[in-house]
Design brief:
about 350 residues, alpha/beta, Rossmann fold, 2 domains, five-stranded parallel β-sheet, 13 helices
Length: about 350
């Protein structure tokens, strides 16, 4: 990660020309010549690409560094079918997989579901009668979860709480077995810290959204990581999250249009400001995509305090935006080789 940071830190979306392209022109040209469809097909498995040097050597090194055994999975006892009621299908599969991977040295005596939402994970684990406490910040989710637990006869206490507050520490003790499925950034780091200070003997955690942190820079947890020369920004922490799951056709089309139009506008704003640098733009409602591309650019220019031109070859500019999207997605395949190594580094820091 340190040796090759010039390859994975710069984001193709914000650069019209990446710094590493001068050193690896053959690879850059090969990636830029590929289609958007080809990029999509390779996105989650970039290591399989037969790309020019140094791509394959980096792919082999990344694979070797991140080779780990599968967690042993146990067969779960049959659960009350009502447990899955009102749980989205993918989330229920995640809960089942997470539960099947748990293998504690001591039998849990009290489950603590951290950032529990409605407590779906906690209820699955507590279905054998083990007491359960669910901590959640959103009162609507707390109330809904309490009603579900009552309906299913689960011994659960749903507590509305900001887990970043000082009061959260009192909810953990040596008897507690905290669990967290997809607790974001600072929220799961807080759980790790409290688990240690409060003397919990075991926990299970599936981290996510490493970039959801208060500061601009990552604060390592372990002595090994603190001594490392690898300094990570909040933007860097977003790299492991760039792996995509299967999305519907409509969702993919909308996502692609949004990015292509942003990239088209990016070319326009660089010209209008006479400044060849990326200009961050806010998240926009999907209704913006129902406008014409010209109106989209004019309205976004107004939003950013830029005077839009009276005339512009809008159709050509939109086509260039789509072309840039294909280039960006393919150039991102090189960054994708570092996705797993960075996530493993972050996980080892937590372990």
């Amino acid at each position: 990660l340190v040796q090759y940071q010039a390859l994975w830190r710069p984001r193709p979306f914000t650069h019209t020309r990446l710094p590493w392209e001068a050193d690896h022109p053959q690879l850059a040209a090969w990636l830029r010549a590929r289609s958007l469809e080809a990029a999509e097909a390779a996105h989650n498995h970039p290591g399989a690409l037969l790309a020019p040097t140094p791509f394959q050597a980096l792919a082999e090194q990344a694979a070797a560094l991140t080779r780990v055994d599968e967690l042993p999975m146990r067969t779960l006892p049959a659960s009350d079918p009502r447990q899955a009621t009102d749980v989205p299908g993918r989330k229920w599969l995640q809960i089942q997989s997470f539960s099947a991977a748990l293998d504690f040295r001591e039998r849990p005596r009290h489950w603590l579901d951290w950032c529990a939402g409605k407590g779906h994970l906690g209820r699955q684990l507590a279905s054998n009668g083990t007491p359960l406490t669910c901590l959640e910040w959103d009162p609507t989710l707390v109330n809904a979860g309490a009603q579900l637990s009552l309906r299913l006869g689960i011994d659960a206490s749903h507590i509305q709480m900001d887990v970043m507050s000082a009061e959260a520490a009192a909810q953990l003790d040596p008897v507690s077995t905290p669990v967290a499925l997809h607790a974001c950034g600072d929220l799961h780091v807080r759980l790790l810290q409290l688990t240690i200070t409060q003397g919990c003997r075991q926990l299970a955690l599936a981290p996510c959204c490493y970039n959801r942190i208060q500061g601009e820079q990552y604060q390592p947890l372990s002595s090994a990581a603190r001594q490392s020369s690898l300094i990570l920004s909040r933007d860097d922490l977003g790299l492991p999250l760039s792996e995509t799951v299967t999305a519907g056709t409509r969702e993919r089309r909308q996502r692609d249009q949004s990015m292509a139009w942003r990239l088209g506008f990016d070319l326009l704003q660089r010209k209008l400001r006479d400044d060849d640098s990326y200009l961050p733009t806010p998240s926009l409602p999907s209704a913006w995509l129902k406008k014409s591309f010209e109106q989209y650019c004019r309205d976004l220019a107004t939003l950013k305090g830029i005077t839009a031109p009276l005339t512009e070859p809008w159709q050509q500019l939109e086509q260039r935006g789509w072309q840039r999207l294909a280039e960006v997605r393919n150039l991102e395949l090189l960054r994708g080789l570092f996705r797993r190594p960075l996530e493993h580094w972050l996980l080892l820091d937590r372990a």
